[in-house]
Amino acid sequence: MALLITSKASSLEKLEVLGMASSYDVCAPPSVESLRGKLPGVYFAWSSGGRVSLLKTLFTNQCSRDCRYCALSSLVDGPRYSFRVEELVDLFLRLFEKGLVQGLFLSSAIPSHPDDTMERMVEVAQRLRKREGFKGYIHLKILPGTSPELVKKALKVASRVSINLEALLESSLQSLAPSKSLRSQILPLIPLIRDHFTTQFVVGIGRERDFHLLRAVESLKNRYGLRRAYFQAFRPVPGTPFEDRPPGSRTRQLRLYQGEFLVRCYGFSAEELVDERGDLPQQVDPKTYWARTHPHFFPIDLDRATYHQLLRVPGIGPKLARRLVTLRSRGELSPLHIEKAGINLRKSGPFLLLKGKPLIRGTFPQRELNLNL
After folding, report:
1. Cα 159 off chain centre by
2. Which of 28, 41, 211, 217 could form a disulfide with 278 if both were Cys (CB 3.0 to 4.6 A apart)?
3. Do the Cβ atoms of 199 and 205 come closer than 8 Å?
4. Cβ–Cβ < 8 Å for 128, 104
5. pTM higher than 0.90 for the full model?
């Protein structure tokens, strides 16, 4: 396919295209990332300190890869742009000084050898850190096939890195992207970025069950310190070989995010959350599904429940579970204190007792818990 490579565009004209193209690299769940800034390329993500505005862009959308689902594929016609290193540094600093962005998320297509582009991405981060003294958030996408030496350089200047697995099986990835290889280009890099990385999967086009995806998250977290996984429901792009394929389910995407969070932060295992086919239920969130299919676990008494038992209750997360344990230690576990602590009685109440009595009127909903979902 012929590509229109434009060299005379302004920085903002390039950002209009490269910022929008970066939406295929996910930096936050859809409910957060959909909150885009007024400028192209400005997105919001969550950190431990709250919401952070990021300049999120590609370094270039020129690509030699023939991914069959991607809008940046060499198989697709369209305008192609590239930043220069100094140009992108200056653009970021202008936006940062105006208070429009607080950090940088930098990814890229791959026009030739991945090291050529990765080196320029690392150089952007190096100039921001060493020359400009920028101490804020920088996220660098590790490109498949990058040399270990460049990966190590990226880790020295990036707050966080990520590498997209896209699929779990070599055959699945080959069907999506014939030029990519899990075995030779992606998996060997994961031990190098342990404890610092996130990853992303395309869902709705491969053969993987939800169980396989959640089990992979579980394994990557336990073995390599995966910070989190992102899921992108497949979206057919006009002009690609997969343009006529049906889009992936957004409900499934949501359930995977919910399941990933339960596996990563709540102590659930992948096996506990899926149905007999190995998939997450679509009609209800996976934590409620688990509660309804494990009636023997409930109700639990707030006077005796452990922190980890509380995490199993629908509507109770880590912060609320810690708050309830603290209230109990102070002898303040009364209905009034519980409600002030933020508990959702409608969602959590049916699964709880207080001093041996139901927290809300009525009995524990055994019939509802035995629903065949």
Report:
1. 16
2. 211
3. no
4. yes
5. no
